[in-house]
Structure formats: structure tokens, C-alpha cells
Amino acid sequence: MSGKRALITGISGMVGSHLADYLLENTDWDIYGLCRWRSPLDNIQALVPLANAERRVFFLYGDLRDYMSIDRAVAKAAPDYVFHLAAQSFPAASFDSPLDTLETNVQGTYRVLEAIRQRKPSAIVHVCSSSEVFGRVAKDSLPINEECSFHPASPYAISKVGTDLVGRHFAEAYGMMVMVTRMFTHTGP
């Protein structure tokens, strides 16, 4: 046992569940997964027997809109690595619920990073942003790279600009090891 611990927010989502599978197969880390009480658990059904048999998978309940639940999860996990994947991730839905999208994604990311700063500031943190921050890019500006400016075209994209900036803020203001990636559209089982 390495004694390393990873916290995956959004473990019940497609990306989070596949990341948990990968970490279980390729590391000896303990995996702590944050899920909302109302999240569908279809993607993590295969992890449940592993949680019981190997005692390497631990499920924690919390909501990005509730700092106390996030703080409790971070305290329990005491993570060396954090993969912050939880979000309201549907651009179309963000037009129906823009404020919920902003609160979940921007303030939720702030809550996660603040809990880490208070509880385990040495953790290495991955914050998941989105290529949606770039919006519609002119052909003469292709290919997209990190130097491209933000032109968000939906409340979701605006929330991911905020997520991106919150991650940078914690890295710069507090010296935390936070990396932000701008994920492009991905599909899978």
C-alpha cells in the first residue's frame, strides 16, 4: 500500500467512473468518490463490490452547493490527489437554469478548493474546465490553444470560464498545486 489517496468529485459520472476504474487498475491508491445523494449510480455499479472486498473505494456524499458536506468529504478523504470532475455539465440545460449552473460550477469549484486549502493544501488538484470557454472560434484562429481568448456562448460556458479562473486564483494566491484542463467533447459508455 502506498498510502496515497485520491478524491474524485463526480465519481458517479462517465469520466469519474472511468477514472476510478483506471486508478484501481494502475495504482495502489485508496479512492474516495464524492457523489450527490440523488446521483444515478449506474456508472459505478462495478465499483461497489471492490469497495466492499478490497476496501480501496470509499463513497462520500456531498453537494457542490453545500460547503459543509464538501469540507467533511475532504477531511475524511485527506487526499494527495484531487480530480474535480463534478459539475452541471449540460450546456443546453444551462439556458433553463443559468444561476444553478453558475452556483454549481463556479461556487462549487471555489468550495472544493477552499476545503482543500483548509484541510490538505499540499494536494495536487486537477480542475476540469471545458473547451466551451472558447465559444465559436474563427477559422483563422484555429487550431485552438491556451492563448485563445474566451468567448463563452452559453451560461455553461460562462460557468466554465469562472471555474478556470477560480482554479488559477487558488494556484496563484495560495501557491496550491492546481492544474486546469479544458476538456473537449468526449463520449463513452
Automatic annotation (TrEMBL):
Domain NAD(P)-binding: from-to ranges: 7-189
Entry-linked InterPro entries: NAD(P)-bd_dom, NAD(P)-bd_dom_sf
Annotated SUPFAM superfamilies: NAD(P)-binding Rossmann-fold domains
Name of the protein: NAD(P)-binding domain-containing protein
